[in-house]
Write a sequence for this structure.
């Protein structure tokens, strides 16, 4: 199975993000891994081994945007992510959002 970048207008955007990233994942540890031995940046490169990079929001909190809003972001707001760093950073952002969300108030229907 071959993975290819998106087609159409999005392909040009994907290529611009990959060029700006020099074809390498741009994670600097937001995934929870220590990338220090690799100069502070994930060593995964597009097409090297099992790594196929994707263009996604650069800010961890923006990884939680609905797809239609993420797709509308300009290339300056995007970064190259390997799947492992993307998924781990997204999970961390989701946990942070959940922790910051106040607990729902109980329904007053059952107050005595």
């Amino acid at each position: 199975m071959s993975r290819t970048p998106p087609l159409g207008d999005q392909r040009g955007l994907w290529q611009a993000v990959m060029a700006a990233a020099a074809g390498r994942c741009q994670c600097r540890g937001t995934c929870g891994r220590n990338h220090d031995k690799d100069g502070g940046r994930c060593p995964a490169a597009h097409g090297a081994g099992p790594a196929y990079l994707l263009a996604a929001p650069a800010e961890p909190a923006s990884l939680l945007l609905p797809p239609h809003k993420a797709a509308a972001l300009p290339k300056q707001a995007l970064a190259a992510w390997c799947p492992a760093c993307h998924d781990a950073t997204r999970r961390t952002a989701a946990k942070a959002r959940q922790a910051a969300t106040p607990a729902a108030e109980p329904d007053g229907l059952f107050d005595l």
Notes: Residues 52-98 form one domain. The beta strands are 54-57, 78-81. The chain has a mean pLDDT of 86.
